Amino acid sequence: MPRTHSLSRVEIELLASLRPCVYKGTLITLFVYPTHNSPYLKSIAVVSKKVAPHATDRNRIKRRIREIVRVFVARHEPIKNTIIIRATPMAAKADMVALQAELETLLARAVHTTDKNIR
């Protein structure tokens, strides 16, 4: 995904005042925020040290998540929400197929969320 599709620190701080629509899975938790000024999806992957203590493992999980989101967005109509994707501790042990299946399921549910469902 292009750099313009990632969130900046300022944008993340602005999201702190909004209430997201939350979709929970066993490997991933998805926080969906409305985006009113961006014509495309903005996303960020968050993997804490509790999930994977080594930076290489955290980065591998983030790369997998970004790739899954990139492929999902390419196959679907333009998504105009802001999405924060947080990995759970079970994501460290999951393979790419399991991560992809769950993330695509959560993203498909999030695509059908309208702005009135997000406060």
In a nutshell, what does this entry contain?
The protein is of the alpha+beta class. The protein is 37% helix and 18% strand.
Please give a structural write-up.
By secondary structure, the chain is of the alpha+beta class. The protein has a single domain (3-117), classed as 2-Layer Sandwich (Ribosomal Protein S5, domain 2). It is built from 3 helices and 4 strands. It has helices spanning 9-15, 55-75, 96-111, and strands at residues 21-24, 28-33, 42-46, 82-87. A 4-stranded mixed sheet has the order 1-2-4-3, with helices on one face. Helix 2 crosses helix 3 (96-111). The longest helix has 21 residues, at 55-75. The chain is globular, with a radius of gyration of 14 Å.
N→C terminal distance: 27 Å
Query: Any idea what the CATH architecture is?
Result: 2-Layer Sandwich
- What kind of oligomer do you see? single chain
Instruction: State Rg.
Output: 14 Å
Q: What characteristics describe this protein?
A:
single chain, 119 residues, alpha+beta, Ribosomal Protein S5, domain 2, four-stranded mixed β-sheet, 3 helices, 37% helix, disordered C terminus
